[in-house]
Design goal:
This protein is an all-alpha fold. It is built from 5 helices and no strands. It folds into 2 domains: about 40 residues, no CATH class; about 40 residues. Helix content is about 65%, strand content about 0%.
Length: about 80
Amino acid sequence: MRENLHKLIDELPDADLPTAARVLEALNATASAHPLILALDAAPEDDEAETPEEAKAVAAAWEERRKGKHLTTQEVRRKLGLS
């Protein structure tokens, strides 16, 4: 099988080699990826509908951010003693 693949690669025009390399790299990365990572990548972004309470909390958070009532990452790090 490897010999057949090598032969196919040897017969490719030079212009197609970068594409072939990307395809083989992607195939190799997928084959060697951890099953948990593959499962997480394939999982839906959110499998539960947003509740009215969650929607209200998100809207309030965005409103606070719009008004400048938020902490920067640096401020949070300082408050937690991490910087």
